[in-house]
Amino acid sequence: MGLLDNKVCVVTGGAGSLGLASAGLFVREGARVMLVDLKDDDLARAKSALGSPHVETCAADVRNADAVKNYIDRTVQTFGKIDVLFSNAGNQGPVTPVTEYPEDSFDAVIAVHVRGAFLACKYGLPQMNDGGSIIITSSVVGAMGGPGSVAYVAAKHAQVGIMRTVAKEAARRGIRVNTLHPGPIDNEFQAKIDAGIGKLAGGVDGRKLLDSAIPLGRHARPEEIAGSALYLASGLSNFVTGSMVMADGGLRG
Predict the structure, then answer these.
(1) I want to staple 183 with a disulfide (CB 3.0 to 4.6 A). Which of 76, 93, 95, 248 is the partner?
(2) pTM for this predicted structure
(3) CATH of the domain at 237
């Protein structure tokens, strides 16, 4: 018996490494999964990689209310009401000091992370089963600061504010709402951040610099963070809500 038998799950950012690893784990635990991402081609590759008849896809820009309503409606039409809403879509901005940070990049990062999570909750909650779970992927920098990434840090803090508010509002229905805070992950998304950090620090190896600050001494594998997502999605976390769940190798501490 799986931890998510017959549960309906939505995973935004589903074609990325963490979304895909989480979706695969959810499926293996018995879930039916709607993968949401920006491009149909990326979603087709992700669905093929999962190789499961219990996975469907929906292309959507998570910043757009109509697109969000569409992926929610498509999920309910395909599988039934939602049990797990994993708001995981994200984008990057440049790594540069605040005085040089482009305003359009700031707006773009805030829109995807903050507005995307807000819209997921706004339109997802009415279509969720009582006792479900909302997970918002924040970051270790949603619990601390960091130079060169003002938009990303601000967005990840803002997601915590959304989580804490929605957790209070959804509690009467037994719906848990939590943020997941990964540290650096071994993937393409993080590699670009590592390169920017290294450049900002004077041309050092950004990956090695971060690893030296992480007590566990390395970047996480996507499947390790997916395990934390599974915990929050499943009944193992039935009495956990309004929480910042750190999966950062001890970096914040």
Answers:
(1) 248
(2) 0.96
(3) 3.40.50.720
Is residue 152 flagged as an active site residue?
yes
Domain count, the chain: 1
Q: Give the mean pLDDT of the chain.
A: 97
d(CA 252, CA 145): 10
CB neighbourhood size of 103 (10 A): 8
Note the pLDDT tens digit of each residue in 185-235: 999 888 988 898 988 888 999 999 999 999 999 999 999 999 999 999 999
Has residue 192 been placed in a domain? no
- Catalytic residue, candidates 71, 101, 123, 152: 152
- Cα 34 to Cα 188: distance, rounded to the nearest angstrom: 23
* Within-domain flag for 156: yes
